[in-house]
What we know:
Number of domains: 2
CATH class of the largest domain: Mainly Alpha
CATH superfamily of the largest domain: Winged helix-like DNA-binding domain superfamily/Winged helix DNA-binding domain
Order of helices and strands: HEHHEEHHHH
Number of strands: 3
Shape: elongated
Strand content: 5-15%
CATH topology of the largest domain: Arc Repressor Mutant, subunit A
Structural class: mainly alpha
Amino acid sequence: xxxxxxxxxxxxxxxxxxxxxxxxxxxxxxxxxxxxxxxxxxxxxxxxxxxxxxxxxxxxxxxxxxxxxxxxxxxxxxxxxxxxxxxxxxxxxxxxxxxxxxxxxxxxxxxxxxxxxxxxxxxxxxxxxxxxxxxxxxxxxxxxxxxxxx
Length: 150
């Protein structure tokens, strides 16, 4: 009774959210509502699990459902901005910081001269020294379009 419940985010809800996000973002759907039944094959999960996940995602505000008279979700009309980030459609500050670090390391490794390699290595080391927390705060400002002024 005191042990935590089994994880459903990574095993059920996130795969369903990603399937919904792929469908919502696909140009052939044109942003129109689509049937929950389309999510089943896109997610690779059984229909019963997709239904439970959709209810959880709706109650958390990640998806906007249309329901029938019985209250069953039949269509998804939209997803939230946070759902887009969680599904990987939009950037997260942490993800962009990681991408920046990867890019700096790659440039340091592939620079054509030793002088350029040293500069990129110094930049990469300085960025790593800033740390993931402050780096994510910086990327949050950049992704959000806000750069603080002095």
